């Protein structure tokens, strides 16, 4: 098997694990500190592996023409890096289980505020990045099921339903308040299974919005055809 194919498979596996672990991290915040902390460490490790596998992307930032889509992609990645650093640094201060071997560090109130803001923005940036990169995935799915109109419309309705539930969950989970730093302590549903469903639907919402945004930007950037 060619090395390029191996790397592609590794990227897909790492990205799938990263998305799954991120949903679990957000869903377990109110249930038990220990699983939440260990999942957070796993997420950090997956992000580091993802960056290593895609490190060449950072060397291309000074090359080529900058379009609106490229700027949006860069903003999502750089925003994610900043938030992961903030999330990791604040976790060191707040940890009571996974990093309990470290000496106590003062500033837990500030660290908690930073952690809440960074963790929720990390969620947004990750799935914004997924949506911006999902063009080929949606294209392949469309080609595969386009001949079956019933299956195609079932897929579309399913995406619309999950996205709509994600919009409701976005509000019910209080994400606007978390993202703007108005919440000082985590709040939400302690039911892990239902919390996972809600966070997964928000992930679909964010991914779909940014996928559609990319499509709109690319459509507006195309030159109109000349009439003959």
Account of the protein in words:
With 228 residues, this protein is mostly helical. It contains 9 helices and no strands. It starts with a helix and ends in a 7-residue tail after the last helix.
| Poorly predicted regions | 224-228
How far from one another are the termini? 49 Å
Order of SSEs: HHHHHHHHH
Percent of residues in beta strands: under 5%
Report the sheet with the most strands, covering strand number, pairing sense and barrel closure.
none
Structural class: mainly alpha
Amount of helix: over 70%
Count of DSSP-assigned helices: 9
Gross morphology is globular
Radius of gyration: 19 Å
Per DSSP E runs of 2 or more residues, the count of β-strands stands at 0
Average pLDDT works out at: 86
Features of the shown structure:
228 residues; mainly alpha
In short:
The protein has 228 residues and is mostly helical.
